[in-house]
Design brief:
By secondary structure, this protein is of the alpha/beta class. The chain has two domains: 23-262, Alanine racemase (TIM Barrel); 266-381, Lyase, Ornithine Decarboxylase, Chain A, domain 1, CATH 2.40.37. The chain is 30% helix and 24% strand. It has helices spanning 3-13, 22-35, 54-63, 72-80, 97-105, 115-124, 162-172, 190-204, 232-250, 262-265, 298-302, 389-393, and strands at residues 17-21, 42-47, 66-69, 88-90, 109-112, 130-135, 157-158, 176-180, 212-214, 255-258, 269-280, 285-289, 308-310, 318-324, 332-340, 347-351, 371-376, 379-384. The strands form two sheets. Strands 1, 11, 12, 13, 14, 15, 16, 17 and 18 form a nine-stranded mixed β-sheet that branches. The chain has an eight-stranded parallel beta barrel with strand order 2-3-4-5-6-8-9-10, surrounded by five helices. The radius of gyration is 23 Å and the shape is globular. Keywords: Amino-acid biosynthesis, Decarboxylase, Lyase, Lysine biosynthesis, Pyridoxal phosphate. It catalyses: meso-2,6-diaminopimelate + H(+) = L-lysine + CO2. Belongs to the Orn/Lys/Arg decarboxylase class-II family. LysA subfamily. Substrate binds at residues 298, 302, 329, 356. Pyridoxal 5'-phosphate binds at residues 218, 356.
Length: 402
């Protein structure tokens, strides 16, 4: 996409606005599949929680992706988008047995990360194939909130509980057809990931009827100019070699699976906002935009950086600005950031806004959620209408007499 395309989309659809480039999603998908091209049975399950718009799911379905889901609602979205239930993995955490049973009836792959639920489910439904999520106790991830493989994590069945896990499987006669791990997001150290993979390979030897091994995801993407990222190509070569060796040792063909979310859609997304006010104080120049952490919470929640570009004046002289939102509390997107000179009415573009931006948005301060647009074949397609005040009232029930 070109800068002038983004400016035109704001004129057409208003601001704030989320825009997703379908071509960039395809490039990332092909990059990952190419990195593992020597694996005969390789499968990508897109992590729906990153960006769950139906049109995005359909783009990925067309590319050949399956889905990684964490709730029955995400499963239903996948089915609505036309995915075969067999291509959907359901990996919940802390949900009820009843929800897992409801999902199982839909025919998707169940993945359980809890010994108690595993025993209950296996006792009631021993013939339904189940994947188990292992916690390898390997610390990985760029932020404590997105590092999920360490010893204090609520996710997964501890590798130290393997004897207990094996007893449950033996007693229930349940069918374990896959094993899974996810150590965290923003992984840079390939060797740490490979170390965790070795733990998973060792665990796999205890299960004789596996169909697949799912290594999760967590590949880091660049969030600013010259930022570092996971070397997917190098990782692909190293893990492929080890996986093919293990497959021979195991004695039957296995599918190698990943479940990327951010890797596929983050760089395809742009968040466009209009500058309402440029405000100079004794120490700072603020650029206040027509949005806030109700629409893009990652900087406030994770301390994450999004490259911000003034697309109304891309070649202007750079000055220092703190870009802030309109939420009535501290609401900072960037502090003292070098950005081309900003004037009121300019359009600022937040890059890497495809993952965990709209999906984590809210109506805080009773603000409506923005529209979403898919850039496909050189044209912008509206894929979600901008909310209205009526949407704020939609599910509220007024008490008679008040």
């Amino acid at each position: 996409m070109k800068t002038q395309d983004l400016v035109q989309l704001v004129k057409e659809f208003g601001s704030p606005l989320y825009v997703y480039d379908a071509e960039r999603i395809e490039q990332q998908y092909q990059r990952l599949t190419k990195a593992f091209s020597k694996v005969e049975n390789f499968k990508v399950h897109y992590a729906v929680k990153a960006l769950s718009n139906i049109s995005i799911l359909k783009v990925l379905k067309k590319l050949g992706s399956g889905l990684d889901t964490v709730s029955i609602e995400e499963v239903q979205l996948g089915l609505h988008a036309g995915f075969d239930p067999k291509t959907i993995m359901y990996t919940p955490n802390g949900v009820s047995l009843e929800e897992i049973e409801q999902v199982a009836k839909l025919g998707v792959q169940i993945n359980i990360d809890n010994l108690s639920i595993l025993e209950q489910f296996g006792t009631l439904h021993p013939k339904i194939p189940v994947c188990v999520r292992i916690n390898p106790h390997v610390m990985a991830g760029g932020n404590a909130n997105i590092s999920v493989g360490h010893i204090d994590s609520k996710f997964g069945i501890s590798i130290h509980q393997l004897p207990h896990l094996l007893r449950i499987v033996e007693n229930t006669k349940m069918h374990i057809n896959g094993i899974h791990m996810h150590t965290g997001s923003d992984i840079l150290d390939i060797d740490v990931f490979l170390y965790a993979a070795e733990i998973l390979f060792e665990t796999a030897k205890h299960f004789k009827d596996l169909d697949f091994i799912d290594f999760g995801s967590g590949f880091k993407v660049p969030y600013k100019k010259d930022d570092i990222e996971t070397n997917v190509e190098e990782f692909g070569k190293k893990l492929t070699k080890r996986f093919l060796t293990f497959e021979k040792e195991y004695g039957r063909p296995l599918t190698l699976a990943f479940e990327p979310g951010k890797f596929l859609v983050s760089q395809a997304g742009f968040f466009l906002t209009k500058v309402n006010v440029v405000k100079q104080t004794t120490s700072t120049v603020f650029a206040g935009v027509d949005s806030g952490f109700n629409h893009l919470i990652r900087p406030m929640l994770y301390g994450s950086q999004h490259y911000i570009e003034n697309i109304s004046n891309p070649k202007g002289k750079e000055r220092f600005y703190s870009v802030v939102g309109y939420i009535c509390e501290t609401d900072t997107f960037a502090s003292n950031r070098r950005i081309a000179e900003i004037k009121e009415g300019d359009i600022l573009c937040f890059h890497n806004a495809g993952a965990y931006c709209f999906s984590m948005s809210s109506n805080y301060n009773s603000r409506v959620k923005p529209a979403e647009v898919l850039w496909l074949n050189g044209k912008g397609h509206l894929i979600r209408q901008r909310e209205t005040f009526e949407d704020i009232l939609k599910n509220q029930v007024e008490v008679e007499g008040l």
